[in-house]
Amino acid sequence: MKPTEDPLLDALSQLPAHDVDALTAEKIRRRARAALAEEAARPAWARTASRWWTAVEPALAAAVVLLYAGWALSTSAALVSPGHDGARGALPKLSAAGALAERSPAADPIRTASPRAGWAPSAGSPPPGG
Amino acid sequence: MPEPLSALKRGEAAAFDAVYARHRPGLYAFLLRMTGRREVAEDLLQETWLRLARSAPGLADDTELGAWLFTVARNLCRSHRRWQVLDLSRIGQLLRTPKASPPSPLEQLAATDAERALERALAALSAGDRELLLLVGAEGLTPTQAASVLGLRPDAARQRLLRARARLAEQLGDAAPDLSRKASGGAP
For chain A, how big is the Rg over CA atoms in Å? Predict the structure, then answer.
């Protein structure tokens, strides 16, 4: 450490040195050396692919998130927009007139047909509903 | 390319040992002073060396290993601080801490009153001021190297160093009048 002309920085450089205890230092050294050996043993293409993926992954994740958010927003906007039939068709009609219109026989293809339409009498079997 | 770096890139254990022996004490001291807790500093130290081991084969030929290691250590400290905010058990512990807190491990290890006062003043600074002062003052990095560690322009790092130094002198105040008096006259 170089002495400087600044007494405060000099005082900082003279602060007591600290180090981990020998056991911890050895444990860390062994782990790091094992990781180094493992890394050095990997083929070059795997390291390149790993580096490439590390660089590309955040951008890819951001792109997927943006695409999904864009799709979700545009779908929500389409659903709540006033001119969208799909939204109104999906919602129940709450007004009394709407409810009556829904229940009128003319609007109900099942009710306008014969009550027994689709039912073929067979011997011994009663008609549906009695 | 310096020889230890090329050997390290080839995965040679001896090169790693040399780098480890050279930079470990400085890194640990930096991490200890930044976190104030031995067990956290040891965890972050281990993570720093594991990152070097995993990244060694891909290091650029002109990498300055010291600056690279301090950059990783500093980023790990920042990340640790962010997670610490979410650690509810630590918040509880802080609420229970009495106002007159006991001396930190660093203060206990200080040999003289002046060292103790300096450790206390450093601990009272913001993390940004502390890391810059430690890198330049305690670890002997040049302001340009410290700027690359902190991701700053060199002139911005020099300005920040001046401000951090002034705040340290202010913190020292009455605790170490000799040092404070000398410091207010000196320049980095």
Answer: 39
Determine whether the interchain pair A18/B53 forms a contact, defined as Cβ–Cβ distance below 8 Å.
no
Check A31 against B24: CB less than 8 A apart: no
User: In chain A, pLDDT over 90 holds for what percent of residues?
Assistant: 32
Backbone dihedral region of B11: left (phi > 0), alpha (psi from -120 to 50 degrees) or beta?
A: left
Structural tokens at position A107: 């609007």
Half-sphere exposure of B115 (CA within 13 A, CB side): 15
CB B90 within 8 A of CB B83: no
CA dist list (Å): A68 to A57, A59, B145: 16, 14, 42
Nearest to A24 among B11, B20, B42 (CB): B42
Question: A83: which 2 tokens?
Answer: 């001119």
**CA–CA distance, B49 with B2 (Å, rounded to integer):** 19
| Strand positions, DSSP E, B9-110 | none
Question: Structure tokens of B28?
Answer: 């640990």
**Confidence check: pLDDT of A115 > 80:** no
CA of A91, closest CA in chain B: separation in Å?
A: 43
B171 vs B100, B110, B159, CA distance in Å? 17, 17, 19
Interface ipTM > 0.85: no
**B163 close contact with A: CB closer than 8 A:** no
Residues 6+ apart with CB under 8 A from B160: B128, B129, B132, B152
Interval B80-135: pLDDT, tens: 988 887 766 666 666 665 555 566 666 666 667 778 888 888 899 999 999 999 99
Q: Which of A5, A33, A37 sits opposite B186 (nearest CB)?
A: A5
- Beta-sheet strands, E only, within chain B: none
